Amino acid sequence: xxxxxxxxxxxxxxxxxxxxxxxxxxKAVPVKAVDYRVELLTARRAAPYPVLAPTGLxxxxxxxxxxxxxxxxxxxxxxxxxxxxEYVAVEQSTAPARKYVPEVSQQAADTGKSQQxxxxxxxxxxxxKYDALVRTEGKATTVVTGTxxxxxxxxxxxxxxxxxxxxxxxxxGAASVEPQPTS
Length: 183
Fold this sequence. Notes:
- It is elongated, with a radius of gyration of 24 Å.
- The strands form two sheets. A seven-stranded antiparallel β-sheet has the order 2-3-4-8-7-6-5, with helices on both faces. A two-stranded antiparallel sheet has the order 1-9.
- It contains five helices and nine strands.
- It starts with a helix and ends in a 22-residue tail after the last strand.
- The longest helix is centred in the first third of the chain and has 20 residues, at 2-21.
- Strand 5 (109-117) and strand 6 form a beta hairpin.
- It has a domain at 37-161: Phosphorylase Kinase, domain 1 (2-Layer Sandwich), CATH 3.30.200.100.
- The chain is an alpha+beta fold and 183 residues long.
C-alpha cells in the first residue's frame, strides 16, 4: 500500500510540473487585424464593377482577411470579425450567381425572402454554417455572409460603399496640405 501512495505522489508531482511549466491558455490566440487599403485600391482599379468596402463601421469590427483575384470572375473578398466575435465577409464577383453564392456562403440556399437594407432589397440565404444577404447589380453579385446574425450582416451591407479607399478620419480642425503650383 505504501508503494502505491508513493507512486501516486510521484505522478502528482509530474502532473503539477507539467501544469506549471507548460504554457496553457484558456483563450484562443487573438486574430490580428489586417490593413486592406492597398488591396482595396488595387481591386477598385482592376475590377469591372464598383468594388464595395464598409465605411463608418465602429472600431470594434476587425478586418481579418482580404483578397482580389482577376481569375474566376474578378473575385473580391474582405473578411471581418464583428463586435461579438462572429465572422462576416463581403464577397463580390462577376461569376454566375447560381454557382458563386453557394460557394462563398458555405452551401447556403435562397430562402425566397428579401430584406430591405439601406433602401436596397437583399435576398436572404440560409445555410448550415453561414447565412447570407445577396444582391446582384449589373455584372456583379455581392454577398455579405458569415456566422453572424442577419442583423450584423445587414449592418455590414448598409455600410458598403463604392467610394475611396478607407483610411483614418482626419482630426477635427486639421488643416489639409495642398500642393502649391510651381512657377
